[in-house]
From TrEMBL:
The chain crosses the membrane at residues 68-87, 94-114, 134-154, 175-200, 233-254. Residues 63-254 form the ABC transmembrane type-1 domain. This is Sugar ABC transporter permease. It is a multi-pass membrane protein. Keywords: Cell membrane, Membrane, Transmembrane, Transmembrane helix, Transport. GO terms for cellular component: plasma membrane. It holds the Pfam family BPD_transp_1. It is found in: Cell membrane. Belongs to the binding-protein-dependent transport system permease family. It comes from Phytohabitans houttuyneae.
Length: 270
């Protein structure tokens, strides 16, 4: 418990000051020259930066686009990753090892190396300048890491439980859904949170595939705000605050779910 408290304090000490400076900067009045140094309490306080950020950056439309992508991509990614991870526990050992090696090799490959062939593929299919290329990676679990995470979680389940499911004549699909998935809920919450943040903050893919301003996601909208002059920098910071709130909420909910499951598991053991 003490180590966990120390770790939480260390994380807060690292991440809280930049967040405070971000919020403080967003509350400065736009049009004023930048302060000579850090200013935690701007004088005067103003929320005009948020209004201008929404109007100038089109954050409402961009936020809707980002939400559409995340709402589709996150469940799809979790579904594919969990199915792949569970399948790796059911196939022969040599095949599992081959999939693990291939996944690690895919993780080692830089994302930019696949940018040109992916662009050519989506252009041939006529999917450029749509949200489809932003959602398509979810059909491959978004990242090769996530099936490996689920695989390790499913492998930690006692093999006797899987044998009992076979004796009860449960199909692999029903075993995955009714037995395995409820036992790895913290892992599901963690993968969902990581996928959401990766999807929400994705800048490169929208920059490459999306040209219509009405299809811009929040990272592209923030890029347009960053071109404002320094006296309007509070507008950009206000947009950054609005963009940062959803990932913070998702991480808080995922952490709460994981801790509740952990305490419930401890209670059952006692």
């Amino acid at each position: 418990m003490r180590l966990r408290t120390i770790g939480a304090v260390a994380v807060i000490a690292v991440f809280l000051p930049p967040l405070l400076m971000l919020v403080a900067g967003s509350l400065r009045e736009p049009g004023l020259p930048p302060p000579p140094g850090p200013q935690l309490v701007p004088d005067p306080l103003s929320t005009e930066g948020y209004t201008r950020a929404v109007d100038l950056g089109g954050l409402l439309r961009a936020g809707l686009n980002s939400t559409i992508v995340a709402v589709i991509a996150v469940p799809a990614s979790v579904l594919v990753a969990s199915l792949a991870g569970f399948a790796m526990t059911q196939v022969p050992r040599w095949l599992t090892n081959a999939v693990v090696v291939a996944s690690l090799a895919a993780l080692a490959a830089p994302a930019t190396a696949l940018l040109v062939p992916r662009f050519a593929l989506f252009r041939t299919l006529g999917l450029t300048d749509t949200l489809a290329p932003l959602i398509a990676p979810a059909l491959l679990a978004t990242s090769p890491l996530y099936p490996l995470v689920f695989y390790l979680a499913f492998r930690a389940i006692p093999a006797d439980l899987y044998d009992a499911c076979r004796l009860e004549d449960l199909s692999p699909l029903r075993t995955w859904w009714r037995v395995a998935m409820p036992l790895v809920r913290p892992v599901t919450a963690a993968v969902a949170a990581l996928t959401f943040v990766l999807t929400w903050s994705n800048f490169l893919d929208p920059l490459v595939y999306v040209y219509d301003r009405d299809l811009f996601t929040l990272p592209l909208a923030l890029r347009s705000l960053s071109t404002l002059d320094p006296t309007n920098f509070p507008v950009f910071l206000a947009g950054a605050v609005l963009t940062t709130i959803p990932p913070l909420v998702v991480f808080a909910l995922a952490q709460r779910h994981a801790l509740r499951h952990f305490h419930l598991h401890q209670y059952r053991e006692t």
